[in-house]
Structures are given as structure tokens and as C-alpha cells.
Design a protein that fits this description.
single chain, alpha+beta, Beta Polymerase, domain 2, seven-stranded mixed beta sheet, 9 strands, globular
């Protein structure tokens, strides 16, 4: 009788271990698929290969990440289209110029030139002086204004694609935590995905990570609802434990 109980206990332990292993395998398969989706999306921007190398080599070398809707839709294997591609770097004002120079030369070779198709921007280079920050769509509220010090935008008119290079004063996690919607807090650094709320994001569910009473953020909420995302307006980030 005792031996039978031991066998049953061993069986239960083995099943638990198998569940853990299967979960890890599923996670690895999911992320590998997401990385493939990411590369496929980069091809639409002509960014997968040049005479130099993949743009993600530069992003990774300078400690950057691509974050926001581009990373989100890649992560979810979605057919939805982003408005632009945002490359974030956690570099101070004394270090960002070398990064900007290298990436700018890279983009020029791919016919991306200063400027944007977005009417909310003015001028060729999005951000040069502090006064210009106020006109940028990222900086309609103090939350974002506190973490960004420079933004530059480049557009390939033939492809109708825009890339933004954003230099932040904080680290990757703090950047993601500054986003308005929880499922948008997704980044990819060339090696791994950073996702603040993995389970909810995979289910296309989320909540107001931050919110400001601006026309842009109200429109973004409606846009994502129309895209099939579910937003719980009764949950806020400071009330929800990290999953």
C-alpha cells in the first residue's frame, strides 16, 4: 500500500515537472516565432540587410530597443500595421551623438531622410531645441516629457515608412512603464523581447498603464479597441501585481 502511494506521488511530481518543461518549450517556441515575425516586418522597411549589417546589430550595440506597436504586433504575430517604427536608446545627452551619427548614415544609405509624414511634426528634424519638444506627439504630457531628451524622425517616401530615433534619460523598463497602454509596453533589443505583462498581452488584453487627458491618447484607446484589444478601465498599473 505504501509503495503504491509512493508511485502515485512520484507520478504526480513527474507530471508537474513535465508541465513546467512544456511551458518552457511553448514559451521558447512562441518567442522564436515572434523573432521571425519581427525580422519579416523589418523587411518592409528595408532594414534586414545592407552592405553593412542588420540594423538590430546597431540597436543592440548601443543598448537600444525597438518598442511600441511594431514590437507588439511582431510579438503577437498580427497582421495589424504600425504607424511608424520607434527605436529607443537609453543614452544621456553626452553620449547620444555618436549613436545618432552612425544610425543616420545607415538610414541615409536606405533613402531615409530627416522629416516625417506625420502632420503633428514640424520641420525636418523633429527635435533640436527644448521648445520643439512641446510640438511632438510623444510629449503632450509631463510623464513622457520627463524621460525623453531628443527625438529624430526619418522617412523613406518611396516606401512611405517613417523611423523615429528616440533618446531617453531612463532604462528600458522605465521606458516601457511610461507607455499609456499595458499591451504597448513591449520591446525587442535584438536578443530578447521585453514584455511587462506577458499573459495579458498575449491575450490582447490590457489596462491603462498611464493615461493623460489628451486627444492623442483618447484616439489611441479607440484605435486599439477597434483593432480587437480589450481594455479594462477599472485596473491601473499600481493596483496590479506583475505577472
Amino acid at each position: 500500500m505504501e509503495s503504491l502511494e509512493n508511485l502515485i506521488n512520484q507520478k504526480e511530481e513527474l507530471e508537474k515537472e513535465l508541465d513546467i518543461i512544456n511551458t518552457k518549450i511553448n514559451t521558447i517556441n512562441f518567442e522564436n516565432k515572434a523573432k521571425q515575425n519581427f525580422t519579416k516586418r523589418l523587411e518592409e522597411y528595408k532594414l534586414t540587410t545592407t552592405n553593412w549589417c542588420n540594423i538590430m546589430s546597431f540597436v543592440y550595440a548601443f543598448g537600444g530597443m525597438i518598442a511600441g506597436s511594431f514590437a507588439l504586433f511582431s510579438y503577437l504575430d498580427s497582421d495589424l500595421k504600425e504607424n511608424d517604427l520607434d527605436i529607443w536608446f537609453s543614452l544621456g545627452e553626452d553620449k547620444y551623438l555618436d549613436c545618432k551619427r552612425i544610425l543616420e548614415n545607415y538610414l541615409y544609405n536606405l533613402e531615409y531622410y530627416p522629416g516625417t509624414n506625420n502632420n503633428s511634426f514640424k520641420g525636418q528634424v523633429c527635435v533640436q531645441e527644448d521648445e520643439d519638444l512641446k510640438a511632438n506627439r510623444y510629449l503632450e504630457n509631463n510623464r513622457i516629457n520627463k524621460i525623453i531628451h531628443k527625438i529624430y524622425s526619418y522617412t523613406n517616401k518611396k516606401l512611405n515608412k517613417t523611423i523615429q530615433i528616440i533618446f531617453a534619460k531612463v532604462d528600458h523598463i522605465s521606458i516601457l512603464k511610461s507607455f499609456d497602454l499595458s499591451f504597448c509596453a513591449v520591446g525587442y533589443d535584438g536578443y530578447k523581447f521585453l514584455v511587462l505583462y506577458e499573459k495579458l498581452t498575449r491575450e490582447k488584453k490590457g489596462f491603462l498603464l498611464n493615461y493623460a487627458e489628451t486627444t492623442r491618447e483618447k484616439n489611441r484607446i479607440q484605435k486599439y479597441i477597434k483593432r480587437g484589444f480589450e481594455i479594462n478601465f477599472n485596473i491601473w498599473a499600481d493596483l496590479l501585481d506583475q505577472n
